[in-house]
Amino acid sequence: TGFLFLWIFADPRFFFNQIILGLILIAQVIELIRFVNFTNRELTRFFLAIKHQDFSISFQKTPLGNSFSDLHQSMSGIIESYKQVKIEKEAQLHFLQYMVNQLQVGIIALTNNDIVLINPTAERLLHIQGIRNWKLVQQHNPSFADEFHQIGGAGRKLIEAMINGETKFLTVDVSTHTVLEVENKIVTIQDI
């Protein structure tokens, strides 16, 4: 359309044709901009849904042709795959939590003085039900915390600690693991 418009532009005999072709050219440019903007909006929605793990997003059929139907099918397929992976990951996490809760050995996982995982056995042994901050554990059981800090990042020690007015002999095993550049301490506790 642009080449045809330029070809007849200089010829005064095609004055009305120039006007019609000019309007057609303007309409095509507007439609092209709308088409590109629609594509960008759909891709933005898709990427934001993945970023925020929003798996409820859906892509409707559009009258813009089969290529958009294929694009929407592909994006919906990727969203569905991410949704399945997240469901599987949650199921594995729940299974791991169930297994840890069934153990008769106390387990505590620490990340930056925050308790990210603790099982009921550890809560019962240390009398710290519901506490998720290591500083509170230190306040609650100072003798245990002092002995624990002597172990450092790795090691095993028999600890005699006064917990809730009762002397307990605990075997404490500490190991440190780095996951995604974050240092995690795994503590196992057994009452002997």
Structure, described:
There is one protein chain. By secondary structure, the chain is of the alpha+beta class. 55% of the residues lie in helices and 23% in strands. It has helices at 2-9, 15-51, 66-102, 120-126, 134-140, 142-151, and strands at residues 106-111, 114-118, 155-163, 166-179, 182-191. A five-stranded antiparallel β-sheet has the order 2-1-5-4-3. The protein is rod-shaped, with a radius of gyration of 33 Å. The relative contact order is 0.08. The mean pLDDT is 81.
* Alpha-carbon Rg, integer: 33 Å
| Mean of all residue-level pLDDT scores | 81
Secondary-structure-based class equals alpha+beta
**Largest sheet data:** 5 strands, antiparallel
Terminal Cα span: 89 Å
| Number of helices, where a helix is a run of at least 4 consecutive DSSP H or I residues | 6
Tell how many strands the DSSP assignment holds.
5
Instruction: Record the strand order, biggest sheet.
Output: 2-1-5-4-3
Which parts are unreliable, with pLDDT below 50 for 5 consecutive residues or more?
Answer: none
- Report the β-strand fraction as a percent range: 15-25%
| Helical content band | 55-70%
- Taken in chain order, the helices and strands follow as HHHEEHHHEEE
